[in-house]
Amino acid sequence: MPDRDRNFFLYVNMDKCEIEISKPPEKYSSLGGRALISSFILDNVDPICSPLGRFNKLIIAPGLLSHSSIPCTGRLSIGAKSPLTGTIKESNVGGTASKDICRLGYRAIVIEGRPESDKLYVLVITPDNVKLVEKPELKGKGNYETVKILKDEFGKRVSVLSIGPAGEMGMAAAGIAVTNIEGMPSRFAGRGGLGAVMGSKGIKAIVIDPKNLQLPKPVNSEKYKELLKDYVSRFKENPVTSTVLPTYGTANIVSITQELGAIPTRNFSEGRFEAADLINGYALKRLTDERGGKTGHPCYPGCIIKCSNIYNDPNGGYLTSGLEYETIVLLGSNCGIGDLDTIAKLDRLCDDYGIDTIETGAAVGVAMEAGVLNFGDGEGTIDLVHQIGRGTTLGRILGQGAGVTGKVFNVYRTPVVKNQSLAAYDPRALKGGGVTYATTPMGADHTNGNGLGGNSDPLRPEGQIEYSRYFQIAAAYIDSLGLCWFTRGPLLGNLELLAEISNSYLGLNLTKDSFEMLGKQVISTEKEFNQRAGFNSSHDRLPEFFKLEPLKPHNVVFDVPDEELDNVHNW
Amino acid sequence: MPDRDRNFFLYVNMDKCEIEISKPPEKYSSLGGRALISSFILDNVDPICSPLGRFNKLIIAPGLLSHSSIPCTGRLSIGAKSPLTGTIKESNVGGTASKDICRLGYRAIVIEGRPESDKLYVLVITPDNVKLVEKPELKGKGNYETVKILKDEFGKRVSVLSIGPAGEMGMAAAGIAVTNIEGMPSRFAGRGGLGAVMGSKGIKAIVIDPKNLQLPKPVNSEKYKELLKDYVSRFKENPVTSTVLPTYGTANIVSITQELGAIPTRNFSEGRFEAADLINGYALKRLTDERGGKTGHPCYPGCIIKCSNIYNDPNGGYLTSGLEYETIVLLGSNCGIGDLDTIAKLDRLCDDYGIDTIETGAAVGVAMEAGVLNFGDGEGTIDLVHQIGRGTTLGRILGQGAGVTGKVFNVYRTPVVKNQSLAAYDPRALKGGGVTYATTPMGADHTNGNGLGGNSDPLRPEGQIEYSRYFQIAAAYIDSLGLCWFTRGPLLGNLELLAEISNSYLGLNLTKDSFEMLGKQVISTEKEFNQRAGFNSSHDRLPEFFKLEPLKPHNVVFDVPDEELDNVHNW
Question: What pLDDT score does A451 carry?
Fold first, then answer.
């Protein structure tokens, strides 16, 4: 068992169902989250291994600052070679697990190998014991039921990481659910098919029970307390983190992208959605308030922004939580669906079956374009998501994501980069985000810089490279620290404060310049893995149709030159 | 219209339905077949274009020697950026078209652009006219009916290239059918999804009618006549080309690979098939003779080997023709099917729907492994092929080939390289062929060196690189000359004769060293395209399972080191 110096790796070898706890190589001990994952994967995973074979490794790593009580540092990174993209992958998630893993003293959990049999295991981690428990009765169960069964057995207090049937079936859209503060499996490491990697290793769930272990105290409590006031005040002074996000959640972005003409609509064929008013932040807030749901809900303990929510059905019963902008757009406007209740049902189903709402919405949009069902067909979409969960033939196609769906149904307008679907920002009208989609080592991923908030005109190609570079670097260190992406407003202009508060708590030696260095290092590491895995600059491109088909209402195409895309990571 | 100096390109621009006939750039005028295609595609096709979009080009080019009457020079090359592999692709086919295109004086037909509408066209080429004719009534028709309708309209004499519904539906397993000497659409440019490229351009068929135009006469008739005797005698002296192939066809290989333990059986899980005797060359010969079919049938005019066949049903009626070894194995032993009549029916259906028998058999094998149907279920396999032709949801998966099928159904043992299925030689027991599968620029392709016939022990890794290199180079020039792959026995040891006879007929300046140079140049050109399209050495690998799972009966894995694979094309 780890002692309390908080620097252990927990290795779970599924070839033999063996568990080992050991000190990691020195180089990993100052890393966390995405940085730790990138470095570990580059060092330890064969870049051309089969993503669902025994040579891939699933790494679960809290951010570097998750090992503290600094507010907004509760994000968890999960990574592997992705079965969706073939690239290195880090997917980032809230919920209670990150801090609980830290309480237990683990820097990372590494799951490797692959069992010969198709037995299904739950990994149970407590301060006294780490064990693999066979749980055949969980086979095929949704995340909600799985978590209920496990909480009944292991106690309400535990954090659970789990996969639904999609992960068991090896679907490339399968994510890993993490329980939120209420114990609901509604926070998701959704992107890149990491649920399928977990499933390939025969792990249905990970139960994390720190019992009464606590996070360490600050190294310099006085200093920390002093800095904390300043830190918190930055969040309160920022209107986005103090007002907009806690009031409306990320759904507030609907009105922004609608205004910009950048909201993906009917499979990325238009940039404005006629029913945007029915699915935006105001609509969400109104329905939530009416039905006794909640906005201003934290997605992990210690969050002081609280942009998450609990969404109730018309009768006031719990329907889903963590209903985010990306879900609302990809399963909403992108499918021509302008009804929040339908979208919320879809979100619940995706959470339960264990699939990424972004990839699923994009896949359904492509299927709609192929004529599998009509745009706007909410009930048909609900049926399709059930089909994914049941693993019907059609469901298995959709469960492989938008790229495979586009291939199977011969859809030219398939919005993927490196086979991962774009998120809820059309790159023709938010060109900085387009640069990010094209070039980030993760496949199209809005969390690396979505194109909102830069100084340049989002409709024009000028300045977008610089914009994307800045945010890709920021995302890389934010995801390495365990910070949430929305801390960028309060913190990116106050990196000295961030360095000082981190140092005061954890005894680090960060300076304001450390972060950019770290971010660059992470991206370089990831690109090195990708290069070995068979990627080069030709993969750093948007699908052809974005360059050819003008997007209404601004009639713009994506016109950032290829040569500029190739310069994003030249620093 | 071209004059008779036989050096024109026919450009068909489907953006505007425009036709242009012009002299090609000088650099192409000494090239033919695969060499011409490789060079043209590298120069003219955006390597990251969408394969089924308007920027891809389909090139149809007779071999360099097809413009002569030298025996065994009637093969036709068809190429594009492949929708299956994403690489450059040349697929090679017999039938009557190659010589007819030469009679008309065309070095190549280039089809580019993509119509805005979904209209369906037939391209009709005669000495007096080239035109695009709208033929909506052919939509969804199989190759057999398509060819019948076109021959009724344009005459029995014409050659037809056509696609079935699979090509219209953009399936990556779709090939292009070429009529054989009897006018049956049973010769196939099967590999790489070129039928889908033709379909994406709105071209259902190409009717080639040279009327009374003839091939040119030899430049030096006396010399040619003299050399011709020697040339023909080489074929007669070689037991494979003089006896084995005309008697048993390529089906003779069944007994060889069975003996070697290298015959793909039940989705590449075993190397011997218990029912091999029922599907080998002797069985084929016996059934063919009994039913009034034919072996010793030429696949194109001017062939003096005649390894093709006509296969009749039990009542003596025509069932299919050109029933080849690869088809017999991939749709036979690889699916656990040990019945030639079932395999022949499957071959006919694949020809009619317009799909590659190799890719289809591999995809069905993967589906069987996934439990979609049982190994050995012949009727079930027939149903699946009908589903491909009808474009059912399951059919569309299979129609995308083994790679997509393996992804959708989460099958680890998916036998593809660069997403193209391996052919009928297990690379663990024929390691030279394994090297070729891994490294050829075309994705797994047996026609570039299948591992049979080398001097080294096929079960051991030593010497396989040299073997594969030799045959990859040979394949590249053979496919550029319009020669058939089986001419390698008589000709590879007599390259001086090949040079002289070519010079005497066509006034070329070849020497015995020209061929190897040409072959290397072709492969280098193709690799350059692939590199620009996003491929590097990490893609030159067999699937992981070939290195991990020993193949019965010899219990061998594929163990040629990666570093050696990376040296195959270093010359």
Answer: 74
Closest C-alpha among A143, A304, A173, A180 to residue A233: A304
- Closest chain A C-alpha to B417 CA, distance in angstroms: 12
* Residue B193 near chain A (CB below 8 Å): no
DSSP B228: H
A50 vs B543: CB contact, 8 Å cut-off?
Answer: yes
pTM above 0.95, yes or no: yes
- Over residues B19-44, the mean pLDDT reads 95
Query: What pLDDT digit, counting tens, does each position of B144-155 carry?
Result: 999 999 999 999
Name beta bridge partners: B417. Answer: B420
- Which SS3 state, helix, strand or coil, does residue A565 take? helix
Distance in angstroms (rounded) separating the CA atoms of residues B3 and A139: 72
Residue B5's pLDDT is what? Answer: 65
From the list B48, B412, B538, which residue is nearest A52 (CB)? B412
DSSP strand pairing (A308-312 vs A318-321)? antiparallel
When pLDDT is cut at 50, 70 and 90, the band that residue B3 belongs to is very low
- Contact across the interface for B534 and A533, Cβ inside 8 Å: no
Nearest chain B alpha carbon to A367: B393
How far A50 CA sits from the closest chain B CA (Å)? 7
Is the ipTM reported for this complex over the cut 0.85?
yes
* pLDDT tens by residue, A481-512: 999 999 999 999 999 999 999 999 999 999 99
| Among the listed residues A490, A34, A63, A431, the one whose alpha carbon sits nearest the alpha carbon of residue A240 | A490
A50, A397, A532 member nearest B538 (Cβ): A532
Q: Which domains does chain B have, with CATH numbers?
A: 236-467+548-565 (1.10.569.10)
- Cβ within 8 Å, pair A394-B393: yes
Strand partners, B110: B11, B59
Decide if pLDDT at A233 tops 70: yes
Q: Which two tokens stand for residue B310?
A: 């006509």
E runs forming strands in A298-454: 308-312, 318-321, 416-417, 420-421
B397-435 tens-digit pLDDT: 999 999 999 999 999 999 999 999 999 999 999 999 999
Identify whether the C-beta of residue A152 lies closer than 8 Å to the C-beta of residue A364.
no
B86 Rama class: left (phi>0) / alpha (psi -120 to 50) / beta: left
CA distance A394 to chain B (A): 6
The neighbouring-strand residues paired with A458 are none
Sheet with A76-81, strands from edge to edge, namely A18-22, A8-13, A106-112, A57-62, A76-81, A88-93
Residue with tokens 């068979």: A534
CA distance B294 to B319: 12
Average pLDDT, chain B: 96
Residues of A in contact with B53 (CB under 8 A): 412, 544
Residue of B nearest to A170 (CA): B410
Is residue A401 within 8 A of residue A407, CB to CB? The reply is no
Residues in chain B: 571
Question: Following DSSP, what letter does each residue of A293-307 receive, concatenated?
Answer: -EEEE-SSTT-SS--
A407: closest CA of chain B, how far (Å): 7
Contact B396 A412 (CB under 8 A): no
| Sheet with B57-62, side-by-side order of all strands | B18-22, B8-13, B106-112, B57-62, B76-81, B88-93
Give A291's contacts (C-beta < 8 A, 6+ positions apart).
A312, A313, A314, A315, A316
pLDDT band at B264 (very low <50, low <70, confident <90, very high): very high
B502 pLDDT more than 50: yes
Look-up: residue for tokens 């550029």? Answer: B480
Q: What is the pLDDT of residues A55-86, one digit of tens each?
A: 999 999 999 999 999 999 999 999 999 999 99
pLDDT higher than threshold 70 for residue B225: yes
